[in-house]
């Protein structure tokens, strides 16, 4: 027997998403739990994949199977496809395993032709309505299946409105629409050379192929790349009997979430339109009514809907996003899926569902995508700030953003990619604008509701969005919008607050985020589950305090070079570098010692009770000196203007030293512990400062736990030498102050040779901290600055690499070295503590890897600490929610 390509809804189940797509599986599930779902069938994703495998041909047997299933469908509904008396009309929708809202195509009212149209007129006694469906169908079909441009039809409609002297489509009567239909058909004939297909079965088969084709349209490809959805899943096609929300005032259509997708509040949240069809609500053309109003307008239907929402939430144990239609006072559920939500809402919903007993704590922790927490850990407008609000729209996606106004997605992309912060302003957005939304800081639209395209997409991306801001009048031609007499032009700066809907001229002060009580609670559950510690990369007491507030259990990387860079210290640092003799250098270091001691005192105190890994100086010394070109210009200017001779001599000496220190490739040059090897006195000063600060704190009764970290080691002998020096200094400090403290000295593993000789290095180390920034650079031979700015985007676009390896750990390459280093290190020194402090320490998939290879901790920027806590817990809990919200 050949493959089964077509399933009736009765034959499917929720766990058949791979085969039937998310939508198809849910329609089947809903049908089987007895909900009022319009009857239908689903063509499998396998059929789509076979279609592609055969170079875009309908797989063998599919046509016959569709025809056969259609017979069953007709029998169930009691209407016949193409029937001249009682015709069955269909909706055709794509539906992949993961929801891709608006990315692929939908066709409504399929089955209409001149004959069925007349039958429908008789059946509904509403000629205008049927002709409106007919003209919409021709337009949709022509766009999706025949590839004709939308505007070719819009101009026909506009011409008809002009001829009749009316403004709105709704003002056209049946006779007008009859003329529009005839004119549309002429457009089809003119553009394709063929008549519009009248045979319903031919329409259906063409539509199925078009949906297969839309799996590979540009916007679907972009969406998949952004959301890491594999390209080879294919889409299913759902063929469902039509129900009509636009047959009069007892009809309507809407979209609702069982809980608020923006805040997570447990209350129905959605919108509907009376006497409207299909995409009218989400398209944002008419601004819809809030769902609560349905309670007044249709109380019985509302109650029925509330009950169904409850059933669906219980059934799926998750917040649902439901599409419904009311046809002549009867409610139909067209679709349900796990609702997309902001990170804030995801947390609140997970915590509350656990409290309600719908899910357990483990599942609650798995429900929140760690990467999405980023949006909560971002800035918002300072509530104390005074500013003038020029307009207010719907608060569609929280967070605040400032940027210069652009009116076009391409322009947003262009400016965004060149580092400009932009706010994309559109009347409404469509899937074709997605690249502009990606590049923008936020989105502002003048039309559309909370479920319009801009709102849904921005929420998914965690970007601020204000939509339906009807007060702003956009003039694309002149690239401006006006609002109550204020004119805002392209390039002007605006701020938007997606939590309040406010639009503000200029920039506004923003403040740091705080963790909500639910967020704290969820992180508490995560802490109970995870096995790795989470630390922060922090160099100042302020950062350390922030890190603690976010739950860091120590500092995994304190970079000391930032302390050298401070403006008031730089002259002493330069004096140290320029010193010609050891005495001169030591004299300068003597001056730096108390300053460094103060730095370490501050950070160790802020992290009381937790370990602080202090890394000795890493960057090459020339980084602390002025730039060669600038110095040359300065000297030349001084000479030309007859400047002070002594000053010129001083600058020339500086220039000589800068030239002497110049390196062709500083990343691979005289840096890290190589500085400690050639100038042992520099590291000696730092180590002394660390332990003197410790002694000071111990005397004050503060539990200070410094650990000294030696960077860029390639050979055990380097570490041995530097370790001996450090231990000697530590002991001297202990003796001098007559106190005791633990001495822990470890190293960064950030070069391939260190990883492959980790067993030797581990004999001299109390801990390893994988510096995966440098390890990625040196394993791939990519200098990050050059790669990201030049060729790395090509590597990703051409799919040579799936991700930027500086952001997402290259597990197969760099990861192999990390695992090897960890295993070798532990073999030689079972007490060795192992962690990571490269940027990957805050990236969820990389954290999962660190957990799997048995690291003791991850360390990341303070703002990513909550992400790391959650990601480590998810790794420990098995990594995947039983109910994915992707
Ligand atoms: C690393 O290389 O991963 C690291 C943490 O050190 P830095 O980024 O300071 O070079
Ligand atoms: Mg490094």
Write structural notes for this entry:
By secondary structure, the protein is an alpha/beta fold. The chain is built from 35 helices and 33 strands. It has an eight-stranded mixed beta sheet. Helix 17 (453-461) links the parallel strand 18 and strand 19. Helix 13 runs antiparallel to helix 14. Bound molecules: phosphoenolpyruvate (PEP) and magnesium ion. Phosphoenolpyruvate binds at residues 557, 559, 618, 750, 771-774, 837-838.
Q: Which helices and strands, and how do they pair?
A:
Elements: E1 6-8, H1 17-32, E2 40-43, H2 45-53, H3 62-77, E3 80-81, E4 87-88, E5 90-96, E6 106-110, H4 114-124, H5 127-144, H6 150-164, H7 174-192, H8 200-214, H9 218-226, E7 235-241, E8 252-257, E9 269-274, H10 280-283, E10 289-290, H11 292-297, H12 299-316, E11 320-327, E12 330-338, H13 343-355, H14 361-367, E13 380-381, E14 389-392, E15 394-397, E16 400-406, H15 409-417, E17 422-426, H16 434-439, E18 442-445, H17 453-461, E19 465-467, E20 473-475, E21 480-483, E22 486-489, E23 493-497, E24 502-505, E25 510-511, H18 517-529, E26 533-537, H19 541-549, E27 555-559, H20 561-565, H21 570-578, H22 582-606, E28 611-615, H23 628-640, H24 645-661, H25 673-678, H26 680-699, E29 705-710, H27 716-737, E30 745-749, H28 752-756, H29 758-761, E31 767-770, H30 772-780, H31 784-789, H32 792-797, H33 814-828, E32 833-836, H34 844-852, E33 857-860, H35 865-876
Parallel strand pairs: 3-4, 16-17, 17-18, 18-19, 26-27, 26-33, 27-28, 28-29, 29-30, 30-31, 31-32, 32-33
Antiparallel strand pairs: 1-2, 2-7, 5-6, 5-7, 8-9, 8-11, 9-10, 11-12, 13-25, 14-24, 15-19, 16-23, 20-21, 21-22, 23-24
Helix pairs in contact: 4-5, 5-7, 6-7, 13-14, 13-18, 14-18, 18-35, 19-22, 21-22, 22-26, 23-24, 26-27, 34-35
The structure holds phosphoenolpyruvate and magnesium ion (MG).
